[in-house]
User: Fold this.
Amino acid sequence: MIENKPNQALGIVTAGSVEKGTEVRLDSNSSVEDMVVGRYVTIEGKKRRFFGMITDISLGVTDQEITVSPPDTSDRFTAAVLQGTATYGSLHVLPMLTIAGDASSISEGPQPVKTVPSHFSRVNLASEIDMELVFGKEDASRFYIGNPLDMETHLCLDLETLVKRSNGIFGKSGTGKTFLTRILLIGMLQKSRAVNLIFDMHNEYGWMGTSEGGQRQVKALKQLFPEKVAVFTLDEENSRRRGVSTDFVVRIGFEEIDPEDISLLRQTLNLTEAAVEAVYQLRRKLGKDWMQRALDLKDTEETRDLLTEMSIHESTFQNLKRGLGTVRRLPFIVSRSPVDAVKSIMEYLDRGMNVVLEFGRFRDITAYVLVANMLARRIYARYQEKMESSMAGNIAAPTPLVITIEEAHKFLNPEVAPRTIFGTIAREMRKYNVTLLVIDQRPSAIDEEIMSQMGTKITCLLDNERDIDAVLAGVSGKNELKTVLSRLAPKQQALIFGHAVPMPVPFRPRDWGTVESYKEFTRGENTERQAEKDIKDLFD
Amino acid sequence: MENKIAEIIDAGTTDFTAECYELYKIPALGSLVKTIDSPVEIFAVVCYSSTTGIEPGRRPIARGKDETTPEAVYQSNPQLLKLLRSEFQALVVGFKNGDKILPYLPPAPARIHGFVLVCSPLEIAEFSRSFEFLTLLIKSDTQTPPEELIAATMREMSRVQPDPQAFLIAAGKKIVTLLSGDYRRTKAILGRLSL
Assistant:
């Protein structure tokens, strides 16, 4: 329940510009030490209200001489007199939204800022009600992901809007990316009408995950929503040992691997450019099962002739062969796959089930990049077909799909992004109802073009200058947000901005890992299930 | 008029000088006095006082060589009370016209031979509700340094307030704003404000 507390007055606007934000002089009875970067304030202009964020806090003096010969600090009287007069605190506030006073504007809701409040407008701390006005309430399409810093208000995301574009979750290792992703995935699963395909490199989303430090086991998606989540695994043995109830074991046949997949692995397999070129030639020459055949080539006169014919140098071929050998050694790669993993994934997705693909012990990047790219490419192709048929009016459009990838910079770095399917998805956006949820710790390594196409970005603490720049590129008030971002707590705090929120918000994600938190997440679910059961009982 | 203490002997737009009815019965530096020039009551702050011989050219001579205390000198020379006089100068800081107290200079100076009265605590409290009059004190040009005068005035006024400390802090803040850019003067005044 939100109380209607009177707004706490902070001070008055003394200067400002649309580009740089406004300067607010603190009243003598508000202490700078109570202010926090990232807090929300409202500015009561003459004709409209402004909604902004504190992005900097500074100390000012009216006379420089005070700094040269400061007053005796033990003299409380002098200190009390000087506070708020000759020495004062000031806030830098970045106005972000405005609500004009007339009735039509109120019904339209908050609009982006195009002006600044007039001189001496009062500035108050934003109340819970103000926050609710801006971020809305939890409802059929809005999902509660956390609380704005130091506030009780629920920060709600419109998930249907969110999944229309590719999104990113960034942050240093150990800052809570996985927890945040889990929360977001649950939100999508409950409220977005989209299905998720999660390439779960570290086995954290399907079944049990561990909390930071590994002291505590936390539940994951399948345990909370067994009807909506299917766990696929590449490593059956590992899954069984962990007690995961898996739905499908994925095997990949040699003939399913395309030259594009190998070219993507150039760096991880330590291949030369020429070797990558050779792959394409081999595919052309040897046909669908090129990989098997290339690996089977013996060091004979015939082989040498074949290579000369394709103008592949002997050393290049050896280099390639070593690389392909690494791929072949992956236990889930078989010469001929007994089942079609893509078909099976598609079936689940079509039924509205969310698929988590666990990698088990195969956590090395080669396996991850290879499998994720290969499967995603083929699933995307199916989606494209379906979408095109639906445009022709034959069938209904496929359910929107969100593909979650970790270590995204391996797929989306400027070198490989143009060639991977993820690069294509990120750029073409929602044309074919497929979008990405990118999770990464080095956003600076991701191609700029792709970063710029992301709709909403959520970022936990980052402390590398280049990473911060990459995440915030193109956002208005970038410098101010930089201050906020670099001051986030190392855990359980994040900054969200972009398409799905009216303005950037630093927030504390919802709790995860306690019994109460699970209850909260599954609340709606259980009542629905109970209702269905009741109806069934009634008619049986 | 029981509060009557002196009579005006010299008056101008910004200040007046008054002679005390009794030798040495001078109001304290910075205390608020008033003179009534119906219908206007002029308020002033005592800014300088002196006791001298009545004849300008004649200086008093030392008389206490054989006396034990200064009081004894006066007892054995009763004529002294008539030969000496105490006067004080007061800076006009505002006036009252009807019910309204106005913190600026009155249209006309006080009249010679007007009576000077000590203000009651109630009047002081009422007058000190606004600190606007401080502008006049800051700009004053008297023999007393303005820093001393302002500090004395505020200390005097604080005596009648329910919370003297809060009053002085509020006054201090006003002084800081008025003297913005002159930190040394501000510091000098603030240093003299503590009770």
Notes: Chain B has a mean pLDDT of 91.
